[in-house]
Specification:
This protein is 47% helix and 9% strand. With 426 residues, it is an alpha+beta fold. The longest helix has 31 residues.
Length: 426
């Protein structure tokens, strides 16, 4: 069986991948596609080479719908009954071809140029308001006290969630990464199933309220488009779910992974303007969405010299593809002044992230505000003791794999109340 090379195995761990020790790891000549054993004892292919990942993202033989993976994969992804599952998983993320294009066009209704402009201006003010709440003291958890509430408030306002629904979103746990390989009936699967039921109920309630009282907001426009074009409620709520989660969770993961990386490189952290200007490089280096949901071979095909059989699952590790020495010079080195090179942070091809023009400015705004408002910022615990999201620190145990911290306790110097400032980083 073709397995991961030694360097690739080391870089699967985000703690290694983001540390200066990674600079000494060379994956040249290691397999770009290899086989891994999953926690349930089955196997799947993993693509980590840049060219292989790009090919897999555009190859029409490799399809997203889980039906192509057979009954085992359907069981993996069935945390809840059909009604709840359909209200979560039937978005563009799990579709291909014409259905994907139609669902993508539906999601684009929420992300008009005018909405993005207003939402990003509001995001800068929300970042300041959130930081006002913590600067009077000298400590915080940047995930709980800043990153998550900042992202949730920005996104729910952008989409037009009524205040009571925004509050309900703030009480929800993260919905990624998902424990797809945990045993049936395990506490982790039961917990995740209950969380899916809670978010499904919230989304159906939101749609019902907006149908009764539509307004000039993204959710109302999505409902109107969905009804006019014959989408069912499962496709509508799944699209709402994807737009919410995909905009909220990567911002928090980018912030924590970036700070984790920069604290180990204090000479870079000393220049805040350079850090902010280097957002594209930080995104490549941290790759907050490390690994995607699988594609399935619909017939015998070849990927980077490997023959795939019909039904084979291929997991795409975007973070490792963004470290491929065949594509990037000194790939494991964080170079904030690096000229932008096309990466796969936001995937590629038909599934290129619809919300890139929202995600990148939000990441930049969050990091710039934290660095400016919290002087002397440092982790309150040794970096090696900080808790990462499941699946971030080794073999594939969860999907999607998120390269971010579950919590980030920090200390900083207290400062007087802020003076008005321009929203310079939006």
């Amino acid at each position: 069986m073709i397995t991961a090379g030694p360097g690739t195995s080391l870089l699967m761990d985000a703690r290694v991948r983001l540390s200066p020790a990674a600079e000494g790891i060379d994956t040249s000549g290691e397999p770009p596609v290899w086989r891994t054993e999953l926690p349930d004892g089955s196997t799947a292919w993993v693509a980590t080479g840049y060219a292989a990942v790009r090919q897999a993202l555009t190859d029409p033989v490799l399809r997203k719908p889980v039906a192509y993976g057979g009954e085992r994969w359907r069981r993996h992804l069935a945390f809840t009954g059909p009604h709840v599952t359909d209200s979560i998983v039937r978005s563009m993320l799990n579709a291909d071809g014409d259905r994907h294009r139609r669902l993508r066009a539906l999601g684009a209704v929420a992300l008009t140029t005018e909405r993005l402009r207003a939402g990003l201006a509001r995001a800068a003010r929300l970042a300041e308001e959130r930081l006002d709440r913590i600067t009077a003291r000298d400590h915080a958890d940047l995930v709980r006290d800043f990153a998550r509430p900042f992202a949730v408030s920005t996104v729910t306002e952008l989409y037009g969630y009524p205040p009571e629904f925004a509050r309900r979103v703030r009480t929800l746990p993260r919905l990624t990464p998902s424990p797809v390989f945990s045993p049936a009936g395990s506490p982790e699967r039961r917990r995740y199933g209950a969380e899916r039921e809670a978010v499904s109920e919230l989304l159906h309630d939101l749609v019902a309220v907006k149908r009764r009282r539509p307004g000039p907001d993204a959710v109302s426009d999505l409902i109107a488009r969905a009804d006019a074009e014959g989408f069912d409620d499962g496709e509508l709520t799944s699209t709402l779910f994807l737009l919410l989660v995909a905009a909220c969770e990567p911002v928090s993961d980018f912030l924590t992974a970036s700070l984790y990386s920069l604290w180990q490189r204090p000479t870079l952290l000393a220049d805040h303007d350079l850090v902010t200007a280097g957002t594209d490089e930080l995104l490549r280096f941290t790759s907050p969405l490390a690994a995607t949901m699988p594609r399935f071979a619909t017939r015998t095909t070849e990927l980077a010299g490997i023959e795939l059989e019909a039904g084979d699952a291929v997991l795409l590790h975007l973070a490792l593809a963004n470290r491929d020495p065949a594509r990037f010079a000194r790939p494991n080195r964080l170079e904030l002044s690096r000229a932008y090179e096309q990466d796969v942070v936001f995937a590629h091809g038909p599934h290129y992230c619809l919300g890139t023009h929202l995600a990148v400015p939000l990441c930049r705004t969050a990091l710039a505000a934290v660095l400016r408002r919290l002087p002397g910022l440092t982790a309150a615990r040794p970096l090696e003791t900080l808790p990462w999201h499941p699946g971030s620190t080794g073999t594939l145990t969860h999907l999607h794999v998120a390269a971010g911290l579950q919590e980030l306790p920090v200390t900083f110097e207290t400062r007087p109340p802020r003076r008005p400032h321009r929203a310079a980083f939006v």
